[in-house]
């Protein structure tokens, strides 16, 4: 079964709860634009509480794991619903954060294609 745009957008809704409506709208547009380029995008994070942000900040510092954020709680756009994180969905089941892979074989890294689309929508 191939994952369709409708399913990708439905999956995003859970992660977009608490995100500013303008950001949520742009996230949906990002998913749509990437889909048109044959790239499936999953939103992995939207709003995060300060406590959740502090847990992520501790990772790789005072807790095991690698560092995944430079922002402490209260200093992340996630804490005010103005940020999203994403990953790629490959072969309808594999979640990927590889910034160099070219799964659609168009000689441009898929991650960078999504970043390009995100920048067009005003994301940094």
Please, could you describe this protein's structure?
This is LAS superfamily LD-carboxypeptidase LdcB. Residues 19-123 form the D-alanyl-D-alanine carboxypeptidase-like core domain. With 124 residues, this protein is α+β, with helices and mostly antiparallel strands. It folds into two domains: 1-46 and 81-124, Muramoyl-pentapeptide Carboxypeptidase, domain 2, CATH 3.30.1380; 49-78, no CATH class. Helices cover 38% and strands 12% of the residues. The chain has four helices and three strands; from the N terminus they run H-H-E-H-E-E-H. The protein has helices spanning 5-15, 21-36, 50-58, 110-120; strands spanning 40-45, 85-90, 94-96. A three-stranded antiparallel sheet has the order 1-2-3. Helix 1 (5-15) runs antiparallel to helix 2 and helix 2 crosses helix 4. The longest helix has 16 residues, at 21-36. The chain starts with a helix and ends with a helix. The relative contact order is 0.17. The model has no long low-confidence stretch (mean pLDDT 97).
Topology overview:
Elements: H1 5-15, H2 21-36, E1 40-45, H3 50-58, E2 85-90, E3 94-96, H4 110-120
Antiparallel strand pairs: 1-2, 2-3
Helix pairs in contact: 1-2, 2-4
Entry summary:
Keywords: Carboxypeptidase, Hydrolase, Protease. This protein is α+β, with helices and mostly antiparallel strands.
């Amino acid at each position: 079964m191939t994952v369709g745009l409708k399913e990708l957008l439905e999956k995003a809704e859970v992660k977009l709860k608490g995100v500013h409506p303008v950001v949520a709208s742009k996230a949906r547009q990002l998913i749509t634009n990437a889909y048109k380029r044959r790239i499936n995008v999953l939103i992995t994070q939207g709003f995060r509480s300060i406590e959740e942000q502090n847990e992520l900040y501790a990772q790789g510092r005072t807790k095991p794991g690698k560092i995944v954020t430079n922002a402490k709680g209260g200093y992340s756009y996630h804490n005010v619903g103005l940020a999203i994180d994403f990953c790629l969905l490959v072969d309808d089941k594999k979640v990927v954060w590889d910034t160099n892979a070219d799964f659609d074989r168009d000689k441009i890294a898929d991650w960078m294609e999504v970043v390009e689309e995100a920048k067009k929508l005003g994301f940094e």
